[in-house]
Structures are given as C-alpha cells and as structure tokens.
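[step 3/7] inverse_fold.run input=structure_tokens len=119
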C-alpha cells in the first residue's frame, strides 16, 4: 500500500503562487494532481510519467508546473498566476489510470490540501 502525504496548501490573493508537495512511500510510474471545488466533480490538473513526460488541463497550462524527484520520492505542483477559480481541495495521486487526466482515477490518493485564492 502506497502512502502519500501532501503539504503546501494555503490562501493567497489573485496572481499569487503556491507550491504543493506530495511525498510517497514508494516510487510509482504515473503521478498526478487533481482538484475538487465545492459542488463540482473532481478534475485532473496535471500528470507526470516516470520519464518526466507531462500533461496539463487547459485551464492551468502555462501557469502550473508538475515535477517529480524520484530520488527523494516526492512530486510537486508549482502554481503561479493563481485565479479565484483555482480555489479547490487539491489531491495528489499515484498510479493514475492510463496516466490520463480525463480518467480521474488512481490507485492511491493523498489526504488533500486546501487552496484558496481570493480576488
């Protein structure tokens, strides 16, 4: 059973930045970040494969960056130019099904961290 521990959420103003971190107990091929706003379904934000290949949701392209450090067993989500619509609970994930954002399915999930962006 893979354990994921998230950190780094918080509250910022529009245009601000945050970096989320997710530490894993063992290495997995596909890692990702998902988010869920109140009253909305969970959506994929970004995924990254073992070799560093990435995919992003259109809504976050050019603002968010996913990365991983296999030696340290951690992956990150750097979020810049944050907007109020980015407000959500963010979840890290491992073993994302098909390594696709559209699946919103993964074998292992972090506990979630809240990101709030005020205007």
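[step 3/7] decode complete -> sequence:
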């Amino acid at each position: 059973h893979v354990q994921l521990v998230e950190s780094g959420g918080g509250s910022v103003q529009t245009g601000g930045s945050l970096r989320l971190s997710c530490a894993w107990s063992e290495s997995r091929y596909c890692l990702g970040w998902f988010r869920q706003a109140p009253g909305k379904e969970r959506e994929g934000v970004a995924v990254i494969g073992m070799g560093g290949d990435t995919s992003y949701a259109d809504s976050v392209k050019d603002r968010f960056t996913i990365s991983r450090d296999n030696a340290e067993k951690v992956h990150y989500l750097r979020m810049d130019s944050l907007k109020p619509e980015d407000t959500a609970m963010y979840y890290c994930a491992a073993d994302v099904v098909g390594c696709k954002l559209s699946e919103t399915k993964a074998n292992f999930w972090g506990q979630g961290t809240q990101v709030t962006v005020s205007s």
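[step 4/7] annotate
The radius of gyration is 13 Å.
The CA atoms of residues 55 and 74 lie 18 Å apart.
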